[in-house]
Amino acid sequence: MPGSRVKVPAQADHHPASARRYRRALLQQSEYEALQSRIDHWRSIERISAETGYDPEMLLILYTQRVTRAATKRFYKVKSQARQLVTAWKGGESLLQIAQRVDFPPILTAYQLLMEDRVPRKRFWAYIRDPATIPDRRLRKEVEELLEEDLIYSPEGTDIQHARGKVGEGRLNEWLDRHGISYLTENDLRGEHTKTPDVLLHEPLVVDNLEIHWIESKANFGDRVEIRRNLTKQLAPYLSLFGSGLVIYWFGYVYDQPLPEGILISDETLLLQDDLHSLVSHPVGGPPRRTPAKEDDNHRALRGRTRPLPRHRDSDRHAHRTPHRTRATPTHEVAETKVAHATTRVRSAAPKGGRATSRGKHAGGPAKKATTRKPSVHPVSRGRRKPRKDEDA
C-alpha cells in the first residue's frame, strides 16, 4: 500500500476574509532552532503541526532550509567518497540505502554516484524528470524510490518552491491593486537598475512612521541566515538605490535579528489588513507592535499622500513612465493551483513495517510528470560545473 498523502493548505486559505487557521510564526532565533530540530523528516511534519499549531507548509520550509544548508556544507565531502559509493552500489546496496547511510539527500547522492560511474549529467537529469526512460530495470526502480523519498531535490520539490514564490508575488500585487496603490513591478524595472525589488511604489506608504518606497516578497521563513543573505544580496542595495522599504516573509521570521535603519520586516499579517489604519511590522528586534491612530489620518498616510518618490541616481530613466497597477496574471493563477493541489502536499509516514512504493495519485487523476523546472545540481552552484569530455554535449 502506498503511503497516504496529506494536503497542506496553501496560502490561498489565508484570505483576509477568513479566520487565521495557524499560529503566527514570529519566533526568537532559539525558538526557531528548537522547532527546526524537531523536524527530522518531512513525514513528521503533519504530527508536529498538530502538536504546535504551526502551518505545515511553514514547517516544510524550515525542514527545507535545514536540508539544503547541510547539503551545501557536505557536498564535496560526499563527492570525495563517490568511488566507494559506486562500489557499494554495484555490490547490491540500493541508492536509497546509500543515501540514508551517508545522511545526504537521496537525489544528490545518486547524482554524485552516477557522475562517478560516468553517466552524463544531462542524461541523469533526464532520468530524474522521467524515470520511465531509464532502460535498466534496477536503476529505474531505484530512481523511482528516490523520487518518492526526496521532497526537496526532486522535480516536484523544485516546482513547490517556484510556485510558492509566484503565489507570494501575486498576492502582494493583488493587495496593492485592491487599495489603488500605483507601482512598478520587477519586470517594469528590469534592465534599468542593477537591483530591482518586486515592487517599487510611485508614492511612498507610511508604516510605523517610516516611508516605504519598495516592497520585497519572500515566500520563505526569515531566520538569521536567510535575513542576512537577503540583506547582502538584495535589501541593502535596495536601500541605497531607492530609500527605505519593506520585506515580507510570508511564513514568519525571527524578530531578534537587528536590521539596518530604513528596512522594515513583516509577515503576511500586513497584507491581511483590509482596513489600512491597522498594520503590523517593526524595524529592529522586539515583538511587532500596532500603531493606534485615527483611521482617516492613517488611511490618508497609507495612500501615500506624503511626498513623491525621491529621484535617485539611476531613477531618471524610468521617471517619464506612467506607473500602473499590474493585475494578477494567469501565471500566478497557475502557480496558486499548483501550490493548492500538487506542490504543498506533505506525505504522511509509510505503513508500519514497509515503505511507500508508489508515487500515488492526485485527487483529480494520475500524477503528472514534473517537467517544468530542472533541479539544481548543487544547492549553491546550480550546476555550473563544466561537463567532462566523455559526457553528452
**Mean pLDDT across all residues, rounded?**
74
| Poorly predicted sequence stretches spanning 5 or more consecutive residues | 1-19, 277-345, 347-372, 374-384
Give a short account of the largest sheet: 5 strands, mixed
Helix percentage range: 40-55%
**Beta-strand percentage range:** 5-15%
- Report the order of strands and helices: EEHHHHHHHHHEHEEHEEEEEHHEEE
Distance N terminus to C terminus?
A: 41 Å
Q: What is the number of strand segments?
A: 13
Q: What is the strand arrangement across the widest sheet? A: 3-4-5-6-8
Count the DSSP helices.
13
State Rg.
Answer: 23 Å
Number of domains: 2
Gross morphology:
elongated
Question: What structural class is derived from the secondary structure elements?
Answer: alpha/beta
Structure commentary:
By secondary structure, the chain is α/β, with parallel strands linked by helices. It has two domains: 23-159 and 346-366, no CATH class; 181-324, no CATH class. It has 13 helices and 13 strands. The strands form five sheets. It has a five-stranded mixed sheet with strand order 3-4-5-6-8. Helix 4 crosses helix 6 (106-116), helix 5 packs across helix 6 (106-116) and helix 9 packs across helix 13.
Task: Show the helix and strand layout.
Blueprint: E1 5-7, E2 26-27, H1 29-38, H2 45-52, H3 56-79, H4 82-90, H5 95-102, H6 106-116, H7 121-129, H8 137-149, H9 155-178, E3 183-185, H10 186-189, E4 199-207, E5 210-218, H11 224-242, E6 245-249, E7 253-254, E8 263-266, E9 280-281, E10 289-290, H12 295-302, H13 330-343, E11 345-347, E12 361-362, E13 365-366
Helix pairs in contact: 4-6, 5-6, 9-13
